[in-house]
Amino acid sequence: MTQVFVIHGYTASPEENWFPWMQQQANQAGASLKVLRLDPTETPSLVVWEQQIDEQIESIDQHTIFIAHSLGCIATLHYLSRVLQKQTIRQLVLVAGFNGRLGRLEQVNPFIDAAKIDFELLKRQIEQRVVIYSEGDDRVAAHFSLEQAKSLDADVIPAQHQGHFIDSEGCTELPEVWQAIAKNLVLKAK
C-alpha cells in the first residue's frame, strides 16, 4: 500500500493551505496520507526539521510518495538525499520548490545553506519526479521552480492557482497535486 507523506512549508501547519483538502481526498480514496507537523517558527532550523521528519516517518518503501511545499521542498530533498542511498520511492511532487537562496526572507538562509542535496542520487532513486509551479507566485518565482525541475529531470506542471499555494491567497485545494499522485496510489484491498 502506498504511504503518502506531505511536508509543509515555512511557518505552516497541517491544518492550513491545501493540506486538509489533500487529507480529505486521500480519506475518500482509501489512501494513507500523513501531513507532517514541523516547527513553524520564523527562524526554522534544518536540524530540527530533520529530527521531526525522522520522528514522524517510520519507514518508506518503493511505493512511497512525498509531496512538499516551498521550504518543505528543501527539507524533503535533504532528507531523501540521506535516506535513499539503498531505497527507491515511487514519486516526489514539489510545489513552489527551489534549490537555493531566493534573495528574500534572510532568516531562512541558514536552513537553505545547511541542506545537502544529491540530485543525481534523487534522479536514480525516485521513479517519478514532478514540479508544480505558478507564474503568479511572488514568493518563489517560477524560474526557481523550473530550475529545480531541471536539476531533478522532473515533469513540470503549471498550476491554475496564481500565487504561492497558501490559503491567505485563496488556495485551499490543489487538484494538480492529487491528479499527479492518483495514478500512483496502491490502495489497501477492501
From TrEMBL:
Pfam families recorded: Ser_hydrolase
An MF annotation (GO) of this entry: hydrolase activity
Xref: InterPro entries: AB_hydrolase_fold, RBBP9/YdeN
UniProt keyword list: Hydrolase
SUPFAM superfamilies referenced in this protein's UniProt entry, alphabetically: alpha/beta-Hydrolases
PANTHER family: SERINE HYDROLASE RBBP9 (PTHR15394:SF3)
Protein name: Serine hydrolase family protein
